[in-house]
């Protein structure tokens, strides 16, 4: 029983609440729908009809390609996919078309990648994850409760 309790405590102390998450681009169809709703709320029915007629003539545009240099600003902690390998790096700067970065736990090593090598769809930023933090909190409270129960018993 004690070995299991120690294992759970060590496991909780090594777990991080931060995860790498890919930022999803905004859906252009949703933005158009919201702008139509706002125009209708304002009571401008003629403008809404003109917008609907214009949209029926023009097809929906495809999602615009994401600019890698805008996503990877200096100082960001990101996980990038380069030529099939993933790297967890901190961005230092851009030198024309090349990204200069260093690995997360090794600031002395310098990595350089050309912007065409980086897969823009798999750029994941390091963010705080509330569900993981909640799970760790519940497990910690349960462990404290079991510890108090074992001391009282």
Task: Describe this structure as you would to a colleague.
This protein is an alpha+beta fold. The chain has five helices and six strands; from the N terminus they run αβαααβββββα. The chain has helices at 2-14, 28-41, 45-57, 68-71, 130-152, and strands at residues 18-22, 77-82, 85-95, 98-103, 111-114, 124-128. The protein has a six-stranded antiparallel sheet. Strand 3 (85-95) and strand 4 form a beta hairpin. Helix 1 (2-14) runs antiparallel to helix 5 (130-152). The chain is elongated and about 70 Å long. Mean pLDDT is 75; it is low at 39-64.
Layout of secondary structure:
Blueprint: H1 2-14, E1 18-22, H2 28-41, H3 45-57, H4 68-71, E2 77-82, E3 85-95, E4 98-103, E5 111-114, E6 124-128, H5 130-152
Antiparallel strand pairs: 1-6, 2-3, 2-6, 3-4, 4-5
Shape: elongated
Q: Indicate the low-confidence ranges by residue numbers.
A: 39-64
* Structure classification: alpha+beta
Helix fraction? 40-55%
Number of strands: 6
- The N- to C-terminal Cα distance equals 15 Å
Q: In percent terms, what proportion of residues is strand?
A: 15-25%
Strand order of the largest sheet: 1-6-2-3-4-5
The profile of the biggest β sheet is: 6 strands, antiparallel
Summary of the model, kept short:
The protein is α+β, with helices and mostly antiparallel strands and 153 residues long. It has helices at residues 2-14, 28-41, 45-57, 68-71, 130-152; strands at residues 18-22, 77-82, 85-95, 98-103, 111-114, 124-128.
Keywords:
153 residues; alpha+beta; six-stranded antiparallel β-sheet; 44% helix
